[in-house]
Write a structure and sequence with these properties.
Layout lengths: L4 H8 L12 E2 L20 E6 L5 E4 H5 L4 E8 L4 E12 H8 L7 E6 L4 E5 H5 L4 E6 L2 E2 L9 E3 L12 E7 L6 H4 L17
Parallel strand pairs: 1-5, 2-11
Antiparallel strand pairs: 2-3, 4-5, 5-8, 6-7, 6-11, 8-9, 8-10
The structure holds the ligand Nc1nc2c(c(=O)[nH]1)N[C@H]1C(S)=C(S)[C@@H](COP(=O)(O)O)O[C@H]1N2 and molybdenum atom.
């Protein structure tokens, strides 16, 4: 049976080749990718907000956020620039914890992630509620590296990794969709790597 070089590498590394989305290749190291520069963050003044279509707007400081119950999930990540990395273990807070505190209104349909420097990313709330989606502050047992989004980033399984905003500062729940930074740049709104939804055109 025909195997691409990329698939062969996955098999040789001992993984099921079905885990590699079309047009991707496996990388061992964890590349760094973002627009702009790594923001300077001070935990003392840092906060995390939930607002929009909620019963109760939330503003949590770092200690309040870090006191919430945690989850640990192992995820594969897929960048639209074609690298994939398997089995990263993230620890953090499931969106459901915050949703419970904030009380999602029935009108809420979309989640807009807001990060430092005005970066945004949009997903249907259902995607954020899915198993495995979390607000992560550790990866593979270590605090997130600065360049990987410390102190807090989104991790959203089943989507290209651009939806997983680094340096996350808040989640807005919205009635209408609001294309994020890369989506306005021409990336596909749905971003399913197995359907190869890379670009909108
Ligand atoms: N704030 C912010 N988050 C971002 C981005 C960005 O430009 N700014 N780029 C996204 C893209 S395209 C990818 S592939 C991942 C890369 O995460 P990593 O650098 O931890 O591998 O971050 C995503 N989150
Ligand atoms: Mo990416």
């Amino acid at each position: 049976m025909f195997r691409s070089k990329a698939e062969k590498k996955v098999i040789d590394a001992g993984y099921d080749p079905a885990r590699l989305p079309p047009g991707q290749y496996l990388t061992e190291k964890w590349p760094v990718l973002h627009a702009g520069s790594v923001p300077h963050t001070e935990l003392e003044t840092w906060d995390f907000r939930v607002w929009g279509e909620v019963e109760q707007e939330l503003t949590l400081d770092w200690q309040q956020l870090a006191a919430l119950p945690t989850v640990e999930v192992t995820q594969d990540i897929h960048c639209v620039t074609r690298w994939s990395k398997f089995d990263l273990t993230f620890k953090g807070i499931a969106w459901r914890e915050l949703e419970t505190l904030a009380g999602q209104k029935p009108s809420a349909r979309y989640a807009i992630a807001h990060a430092e420097q005005g970066f945004t990313a949009n997903v249907p709330i259902a995607v954020l509620r899915a198993e495995g989606a979390l607000l992560a502050y550790e990866a593979d047992g270590e605090p997130l590296g600065l360049e990987h989004g410390w102190p807090l980033r989104l991790v959203i399984p089943g989507k290209y990794f651009w939806k997983s905003a680094k340096w996350l500062r808040g989640i807005e729940l919205s009635v209408s969709d609001k294309p994020g930074f890369w989506e306005r740049y021409g990336y596909h709104n749905d971003a399913d790597p197995f359907k190869e939804q890379r670009y909108a055109f």
